[in-house]
Structures are given as structure tokens and as C-alpha cells.
Amino acid sequence: METMPDDDCFALRQASRFISQIYGQHLASVGLTTTQYSILDRLHRHGDMTMHQLSMAMVMDRTSIVRALKPMQRDGLLESRRDGGRESTIALMKPGVARLKKARPYWTTAQSEFEERFGSQRIRALRSELFDLTDD
Fold first, then answer.
1. What are the CB-based long-range contacts (under 8 Å, 24+) for 59-63?
2. Which of 25, 78, 80, 84 is the 20 to 30 A CA-CA neighbour of 112?
């Protein structure tokens, strides 16, 4: 396979797809995508969020957020509320907390698998660098 050593975007996207496949294979057991897991976890840690807040926190456009939310709303994991304003607030429901709890061991196993492949010291350094990219 020919590589493009100076194409940072391609390298990051390729690595992201590879890593997402690892996590996705594990989370499939509980019917969640990696994005859905991250949304549930974010809401669990930070409480209700407006669509704008969630979009900013996830560094995702609104359309992609809505696409990830719809199946979880349908399954009763999340609820979207309008509290008089224009902006919807997304709230984690009890079944969402239960699904997150059920998914967490699968996420942890995926995390361990990736760290084993990449090396725990290298992944800590990489994680720190990647989070620095999106810190405001």
C-alpha cells in the first residue's frame, strides 16, 4: 500500500477509522456506535446540554449530532426538551444510564485492546496532543 507521508489529514482520518473499528466492534454488542457512547457518557458526566453545547463539546456539526441522537431518542435513552426557547435541551434518561453502564465494560475492553496494540505510554502522549488540538 502506497502511503502519503506528508498528508496529515489522511493519516489522522485513516488512524481514526482504524481505532473506531476496534471500539465499534466491541460496542456493537450493546447496540451503540462510538459516537452514541461518547454522547451518553458526556451527558452522564456533565448533565443536560443544549444542542449547541453538545455540538461544541463533541466538535460535531448539528446534522451529525441529530443523526446520532435520533435512534437513542427513539429507544428512550435520551429526551429532547424545548423549554420555551429556540434551543432544544438533550437529557439522559434512566434507560440511557442503564445502556451506558452496560456498554462501559465493552468500551474498557476496546480501550485496553487499543492501548495494548499502541502502547500505554504512547497513547497517553497521543491523547494529550490530540486534546490540545481542540482545547479552546
1. 59/134, 60/35
2. 78
Domains along the chain with CATH numbers: 26-131 (1.10.10.10)
Length of the chain: 136
* Cβ atoms of residues 123 and 115 within 8 Å: yes
User: What's the burial of 71, exposed, middle or buried (CB within 10 Å: 0-12/13-18/19+)?
Assistant: middle
> Residue 50 pairs with which residues in a beta bridge?
89
Question: What's the whole-model pTM score?
Answer: 0.86
What residue spans of 47-93 are helical by DSSP H? 51-58, 62-74
Could you tell me which residue, 22 or 130, shows the higher pLDDT?
A: 22
Task: Give the tens place of pLDDT for each residue, 91-117.
Answer: 999 999 999 999 999 999 999 999 999
